[in-house]
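Work through this protein:
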Amino acid sequence: MMLSKKTKYVLLAALVLGLAVIYVPLLVVLLNSVNSDTTFGWPPSGFTLEWWGRAAENEGVLRALLTSLQAGLAATAIALVLGMMAAFALQRYRFFGKDTVSLLIILPIALPGIVTGIALNNAFRTILGVDLGLFTAIVAHATFCIVVVFNNVVARLRRMGGNLEEASMDLGADGITTFRLVTFPMLRSALLAGGLLAFALSFDEIIVTTFTLGAGLQTLPIWILDNLFRPNQAPVVNVVAAVLIVVSTVPVYLAQRLSGDTASGGRL
């Protein structure tokens, strides 16, 4: 399609404006994490790493970081196993209600976080009688992390087809050997991409976490929310926010690169 020069400039301006709205505030957060002015005057009067040192020594931040890592890694591990199993079941087999099951698996990531949080809170406390804690937060995070892994694996299985696996079975390999030597190597990058995205989602989740994490526990996003309006903690909050930006961006970038693998193998 041929576009006039004026139209190209308008579209380029709209693109630049959209990206600026998204990324300029993030850049401000990164700059404020090294801004020597505690009132965050603009432009910065100087730069310092003092706030990063304080953040590294802040016990609340370190405990919140540990909780976020534990929840993210555990939820990702659960999502990798269940998401892969669900993807194989729905992609490789035909059964009654297949489309309904697929919808039910994907639905949690489409529901508003506050609805999911309230529903899980009621289920844990009222129906199951389970006290809220790190375990309940991990289960809650896994509900939407599974969707990310499921989508990645289903997409890879559709591109792979079943010819190589059938050839392996024809040559005498059993199901486990075929999965280990043929299927898994071709799925590896899709699983890694799904795992990275799942971890990123879990690491910066706040709404569902608020309703499912036990008292006395904090993740990094909840720590930021609790300390956001405390003047003495403002510099440290910016540092923690900067860390979250990096921790969230790197997995998404790697997942995007891995998801771009071709269907011919998707090997790392």
Notes: Residues 59-92 form the longest helix (34 residues). The mean pLDDT is 83.
